[in-house]
Design brief:
Number of helices: 13
Largest sheet: 3 strands, antiparallel
Number of domains: 2
CATH topology of the largest domain: hpI Integrase, Chain A
Number of strands: 3
Strand order of the largest sheet: 1-2-3
Oligomer: single chain
Radius of gyration: 21 Å
CATH class of the largest domain: Mainly Alpha
Distance between the termini: 64 Å
Shape: globular
Helix content: 55-70%
CATH superfamily of the largest domain: Intergrase catalytic core
């Protein structure tokens, strides 16, 4: 798995030993392979090389992720004594603008549910009602269901329980024992495949992630309980949850009216 002088095998082993998720390991290695294609000698990489590569990334979020992967590699290389040089320390951290919540519209969600086949409909329900991420949907196993709740393996290996609607419980009960969404190799479906299937079902440029926004927005509107929504979505910070909640402009009008 090595690319030129890059010890990607050793780095992957270290990530796995630190219990990074398989998805995180794959992402880090993909970032490093792309960078290594143009910079075969890691010890010759400069801060300018890193900055130029990051500047060419398609979005601030992707740029931040790429810089994080490079930083993780060089931090590991310094720790094991392979080098004393970390070029990422000579680059600025990527600032990501605070995103606005973009919940999938109810009409789009309902139409997609009506038109979807059984497998995709279950994906839509798990994301739109229980707020699961693509990777969480992809890893679901029938043993994770326990009555009206589901044990979800979230980011960083953090597990949480989420409640299930009667409709989701009914559909899950029909799934044969094993992976809820099996892949072609006998293992679970890839998260990317889940995301593409859901986005295709929604259409109109609406992504699977907008269903998490839909779930957070709807749950908060119904309960007013930000902590409960945080737990439902599996966020480490309430600040992250707040970015998922789209309240529309009416509350802003009401706030101004109250102050008038």
């Amino acid at each position: 798995m090595s690319s030129g002088g890059w010890d990607l095998d050793g780095f992957a082993t270290d990530l796995a030993a630190r219990k990074q998720s398989p998805g995180t390991v794959r992402l880090r290695l993909a970032h490093l392979r792309r960078f290594a294609a143009g910079h075969p000698d890691p010890w010759a990489v400069t801060g300018g090389d890193v900055a130029a590569h990051v500047a060419g990334c398609r979005s601030p979020e992707y740029a931040k992720s790429v810089r994080s992967s490079l930083s993780a590699y060089f931090t590991w290389a310094v720790r094991r004594g392979a080098t004393e040089h970390d070029p990422t320390q000579r680059t600025e951290r990527v600032r990501v603008p605070r995103p606005q919540a973009r919940p999938c519209p109810e009409g789009v969600y309902k139409r997609a549910l009506l038109a979807a086949d059984g497998q995709v409909a279950l994906m839509l329900l798990l994301m739109g009602q229980s707020g699961l991420r693509c990777m969480e949907v992809a890893r679901l196993h029938t043993r994770d269901a326990d009555g009206d709740r589901l044990l979800v393996a979230g980011k960083g290996g953090h597990a949480r329980w989420v409640a299930l609607s009667p409709e989701v419980r009914r559909r899950l009960a029909l799934v044969p024992a094993g992976w809820v969404f099996p892949g072609r190799d006998g293992g679970p479906m890839r998260a990317g495949s889940v995301g593409r299937k859901v986005a295709a079902a929604l259409g109109g440029g609406w992504t699977a992630h907008t269903l998490r926004h839909r779930c957070g927005t709807t749950a908060y509107a119904a309960t007013g309980d930000l902590i409960a929504v945080q737990q439902l979505l599996g966020h480490a910070s309430v600040a992250t949850t707040q970015r998922y909640i789209g309240s529309g402009f009416d509350p802003v009008r009401a706030a101004v009216a109250a102050c008038s």
